[in-house]
Structure formats: structure tokens, C-alpha cells
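Each record in this resource describes a single protein on a pair of labelled lines. With that in mind, the following record should read easily:

===
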Amino acid sequence: MWIFRITSAVIFLTSIVLSVPLGFDVGGRTCGLAFSLSLATFYFWYSVLRLATPDKSRFRYALVRAIGLTQWIILPSLLIWSLNRFSVDADNSSGWVERTFSGKRAQDTSLREWIFGPDGLVEALTIGTWDKLLRWSTPVFQLVEGFCSLLVIQAAGQITRWLVNRGGRSDSWMIGLLVMSASIISSSVYFLWRVMQFPQIGNVDATLIGITITCAVFLGAWGIGSGKGNPVESSLLFAYIVLCIYQIFTDYQPSHPLDPMPPPPQAADFPPFPPIIMASYTTLIHVLSTLPSTIHGGFNFIMAALSTITPSVIISLAYRFFVLYASTRIIPAVRESGARALSQEASLEDSDGAGQILGLLSWFSPSILITVYTSLLMQHFASTSGDGGGGEWWTSQGGDAGGNLWRWINVAGTMALYALELYLGKEDDGTLTGHWKAD
């Protein structure tokens, strides 16, 4: 049933979001990489098995169901295995190349231990290749996010244009969409004002922000004035540019330390609530204090896992997967299917090649999710190390001090592509909504 599918998806997302940063925080950089690699490999082969399982094969179907039910045991087992084998110790501070090919391997007693043992050749090649892959894929993910965001923005503009021009309640739609666009711009201006208050903003940063915002405003005005865009497109483009700037200069956390908490007020002579409420509250606290220590330990474990996750990574992950999923619906709609494709998922049975490729990628969505999430975590750790903000442990374990170059390239590329669309596009080009009926 659909309720079980939704529950399983929520549990899967929660477990991945909590466990991967926990591996980095507790075990170190190598442990986090090993855990994410093992997860991605497991779900890759699980997806291959599901894809290769015919509908009439009962044995393969039972095997797929059994693996699907035991994945909740496999996931913590992989985490424990990674923490047990790859945790940071005193002799594991150098890079994987140095550990493998330096004289430190002279302590190995056999060729088998040198190849398959701890810090051996196989371990170094697998984790080292995974590390390189994640580093090189960061620019790709960033540019794909900008392209998919532009697809979503243009699709939203065409849909809102169709709602206004179809007749009926067009005036109501127009007023409502104008109010929504104004709200989006107002919210974006507020977050832009917050960015400008950060103490780390220098003259070069302020110049780049000014040029970027000026170009975004110019593109929005050009689209509205030429009739090739509309206020919804312009407001969404402006909001995405502000989001990129916000991701570059902040971690969605307060820039200044919080003020110390004032001392608690002295207890009053009379309770602040009626006696029945205070009695119920006291009873609830007493019941919670008598719970088994296992429940308290589990609650403390969840809180510790949540403390390792930064809101910036979660917001970036949610937004990136939203635009990627929306693009899988928009691309077939733009090609030939019109509105029907917006309500159907891409599959391998589609007639066009783009739909088949998107359908194939949807089968491997768990592995893609883990890869994108790990890449975002590495980008976050590298950025904090480059800024000197408490991320020294990342560079001390072989990580690079990252920067925001590719985010700026994504901002410039997105605006350049939108300017090209405005220059080459036609006025009121209903590519997506041309298949729709307007009664």
C-alpha cells in the first residue's frame, strides 16, 4: 500500500540523513567515506537486482523482498563496521597514498596483508577513488542544480501564464500571482539584507554581490518588458540567485555568538498554571524519568546525530532533489507529452530516449541520493576548513580546504543561460502548455 511506501521512504531518508554525517563526526573523514561508499555500493547492487528481476521469477522476487526487509539491519551494521575499522587513531593521520606506499607498510608480515589488510592497497584504491569521484562530481552537481532550477522556473512561468490566459478567473489568478511574486521578492530581499550584515563580507564579496543582483534585476525586467517572461519567472530567478549567495556566505547559523541566557527567575509564591495542569506535567516528567535506560540512550543518540547535521546541507539536499525530480517530469512534457507527462513518472518503457534515461536513473535514486548527500557534506566540511571556522580536523585528515568558485560559476552560468533563452525565445512561447486545452 502507498502508506507503507511513504513510511519506508521517510525511514530511509531519515536513516541516511542521520547516519552519514555521524560516520564523519565520530569516525573521521576516512570512516565517513568508507560508510557512504558501502551504502552506495549496497543500494547500487540492490537496484540492479530489482531491475533485473522479471515479474514471473518468484525466487528473485522473494530475494528482492528479503533484502528490502533486511536493509534496516544492514545499514547500522555497515556503520558499526566502518567505525570499527576506519576510525581515526594516532597512526592514521596521513593521506591514503602515503599510508599505502610509504615505509610505514614495512610492518606488514605478508603480501596478503599489504593488499587486503587495514590501510592496504585495495582499501586505499577504493576509498581514494570514491574520494576523488566525490570531489570531481561537486562542480557537476552544482551546474546540474542551476540548469534544473532554470527548467523549473521557466515551467512555473509557462504554467502561470496559461492560468492567466485561459479565461474564466484570469483576473483573480493575475492578482494572486502578483501577490505571490511580491512576497517571494520581499523574502529574498530580507535574506539578502541578512547576508550583507555578515562580518566576513569584504569589498570583493560586496562587489560580486552587487553585480549579481544588478544582473538578476536587469534580466527580470527584460523578461517582463519583452513579454518573454513574467513576474513569477523573474521573482523565482531572483530568489534562486539570493539562495546561491546565501549558501556561499553563510551556514544558516547565527554569525555572532548568542547572548548568555539570563538567570532563571525566582519561583513565585503561586504556580504559573492551574493545579490540574501542574499535576499532569509533574506526572508526565515522572513517567519519562522511569523509562528504561535503553530509550534514554536511543534518544541521546538521535540528538547527538542531529547535532552533527547543519541546516545548510539539509536545505541544499532537499532543494537539489526537488529540482532534479521536477526536471524528470518537465523534460518529457517539453518534448512531446504536454500536461500528461507532469502526472507520470519517467520509465524504461517510454518511447523517447530521454524518458528512458530518466527512468533508468530513477531506479538508482538511493545511490544517487547518498552520493549527492556525501558530496554536500564534503563541500560543507571543506568550506568550514577554508574559512578557518572549526573545520581544521578535515584538512588534518587529508581533506582539501574548499572554496565557493563553482557556486559563483553556477550563478553566472544560470543567468547567462536565462539571458540566452530571453534573446532567442519567442514571445509567449507555450512549449510546455501548448498541448493543454483552454476551455
Observations:
- The chain has a mean pLDDT of 75.
- Residues 144 and 324 are 8 Å apart (CA to CA).
- The chain has 16 helices and no strands.
- The radius of gyration is 26 Å.
